[in-house]
Specification:
With 341 residues, the chain is α/β, with parallel strands linked by helices. The chain has two domains: 179 residues, Alpha-Beta Complex (Quinone Oxidoreductase, Chain A, domain 1); 123 residues, 3-Layer(aba) Sandwich (Rossmann fold). It contains ten helices and 15 strands. The strands form three sheets. Strands 3, 4, 5, 6, 7, 14 and 15 form a seven-stranded mixed sheet that branches.
Length: 341
């Protein structure tokens, strides 16, 4: 259970790859333009495993760090210049700390900020703690009746929403999703809302097939046979070494492909000749800009997303190493793992 601001609690700190500890947590009073949030839950994803395992790319982590970039909570206190009406509201928040001044920020591409990379839970303190203090401009307010456990998945949802905005799915299209992990199953839900004629999911794990169908997939298959070169839009959400090539192979000539997964170094490359002669439009996603966050929060508030169904484990912060092991074990019965302060 989260403690009130001013009280003590425990936070997870990763000092170096493979080395973590639980430390007493003291809330950071919000300064001008900031808000202090009581954390309800913090999710673990592959990026957190990279931080703990020491495999995150250079420049995208700074040790020691409190992890936790997927989270939900309630505003407990605000600093000068922030409306008092924000106190008590349920919120989620963007992680990228963009400068708001460079050319990329001015065009809305805050994840491409040229001032350098800073992100909650990677280079700045994250939400695996009882409270989190951050700029109030990064917060997105949820409906008063929002399920905060489900809302902890709005960060990956925002990343998928960025893919949807890039891909611009149209009613009646033949669509495919590669991978039925958290990102893939969120993509299925958002794509189903666009009324595709066909919505195929490529996923070898049978345990994930039922959820994909419940979320709107018209077919779940474990092979590309019969789908190659047929799809108007393909969303890659697996991040496996060969999944980008698989996604491109599913697209028809003139089709669109969006890559959301980040594979390990050494993944199979794409053939530029195939891209050019097939007149394929290729998009990539890294993080989520404000427009994607707003899109995700609106879809969640409208009841278009069942994010709670993706949560399979809720553990206390002290179980951080067990949670990391669960996420990395490859068990198809393990979905989203949340830590509760």
């Amino acid at each position: 259970m989260s403690r009130a601001p001013g009280g003590s609690g425990l936070a997870v700190v990763i000092d170096a790859p493979g080395i973590h500890r639980l430390v007493p947590h003291e809330p950071v009073p919000p300064g001008p333009g900031e808000a202090l949030v009581r954390v309800h839950a913090s999710g673990i994803c592959g990026s957190d495993r990279e931080v703990y395992g020491g495999t995150r790319p250079e420049g995208y982590v700074r040790y020691p760090v409190v992890p936790g970039h997927e989270w939900s909570g309630t505003v407990a206190e605000v600093g000068a210049g922030v409306p008092d009406g924000l106190v008590g509201r349920k919120v989620v928040g963007e992680g990228f700390r963009a400068c708001q001044l460079c050319e990329r920020c001015h065009t809305g591409d805050t994840t491409l900020c040229t001032a350098g990379y800073d992100e909650t839970g990677f280079t700045l303190p994250g939400a695996m703690a009882p409270t989190l203090t951050l700029p109030a401009r990064l917060l997105h307010v949820l409906p008063d009746d929002a399920d905060l456990t489900a809302a902890a998945l709005l960060e990956p949802t925002a990343c998928v929403a960025a893919a949807m905005l890039a891909a611009a799915p149209r009613p009646g299209e033949r669509v495919a999703v590669v991978g039925a992990g958290t990102l893939g199953l969120i993509a299925v839900q958002l794509l189903a809302a666009s009324s595709p004629a066909e919505l195929h999911v490529l996923e070898p794990r049978r345990e994930r097939a039922q959820l994909a169908r419940e979320f709107g997939a018209t077919a779940v298959v474990d092979t590309t046979a019969g789908l190659d070169g047929r799809c108007d839009l393909v969303v890659e959400a697996a991040g496996a070494p060969g999944s980008a090539r698989t996604a491109v192979g599913l697209a028809r000539r003139g089709g669109r492909v969006v890559l959301t997964g980040i594979p390990a170094p050494g993944a199979a490359g794409l053939d530029p000749t195939e891209l050019v002669t097939g007149r394929l439009t290729l998009h990539t996603v890294f993080g989520a800009p404000p427009t994607a966050w707003a899109h995700a929060v609106r879809a969640f508030g409208a009841g278009l997303l069942d994010l709670g169904a993706l949560v399979t484990h809720e553990l206390p912060l002290g179980a951080f190493p067990q949670a990391i092991e669960l996420v990395g074990a490859g068990d198809p019965k393990v979905g989203k793992v949340l830590l509760r302060p």
